[in-house]
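Marked as duplicate of an earlier ticket. Keeping the data here for the record.
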Amino acid sequence: MAEKRQSLADQAYEIIKNRIMNLTYPPGMPLTEAKLTEELGMSRNPVRTAIKMLQSEGLIVTDYYKSMTVKEITDKDINDIYQLRELFEGAAFKLIYDSGRAEEYSYRIETKVVQMCAKAGDIYEWELADTQMHLEIISIFDNERITKFYESNLYELVRIGLYSVKNGMRIAPTNENLKKMVNYMRKNNYEKAFAILKKDHFMQGKDRALNGTGDGSLSD
C-alpha cells in the first residue's frame, strides 16, 4: 500500500508540476487541495504529498492565511535572471572562441538546435529544448556551480521563456537564426554569431517576457 500511495503521489507531483511549468496553472493562480484532488481524480493523501514536494521546490507558495498559489514571477525576477544569463552565456560564448573550440561547439549546439526544430509544434517542449541549448553553451566552463545555477532556476527559465513566446517571440525565425549562428561559429565569426544570441535570446527574450507583466507579475 505504501508503494502504491507513493506512486500516486509521484503521479500527482508530475501532473501538477507540468501544469505549472506549461502555464496551465499560471503564476499567481490560487490552488486548493480540494480543487487539485477533483481535477486529478485522486484522494487527498497523494495530492497533499505532491503539494508538499512542490512547496519545497518553491513552485507553490503559501501565505500567512495558508492560501496556496502558484509562485509568481515578477519583473525583477525576469531582469535578474536575464542579467545573470547574459553575464554567464556572454562569457561562455567568448571562451568558446578564445579556447579555439568554436567549430567543436558549433556541432554540439547544432544537435540542440535540431531538437528545438523537432519540438517547434509544442512551445513547452521547445522551451525545454532551448534550455538544453543554453546549458550546452555554458558547459564550456566545466563549472558545477554555474551549471547548478541554471538547474536551480530551471523552472523560472522555462516559465519565463514560455511567456516570451506567448507575447510575440516567434519559434520558427528563432530556430532559423540559431542555424545561422551555428554557421557563423563554423566560420569562426564571433561577432555575427554572438549578435544573434544576444538579440534573439537576451534582448528579445527579456523584452517579450516583460510585455506579459501588466502589474509586475506574470499572470493571465
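See parent ticket for discussion. The CA atoms of residues 12 and 71 lie 18 Å apart.
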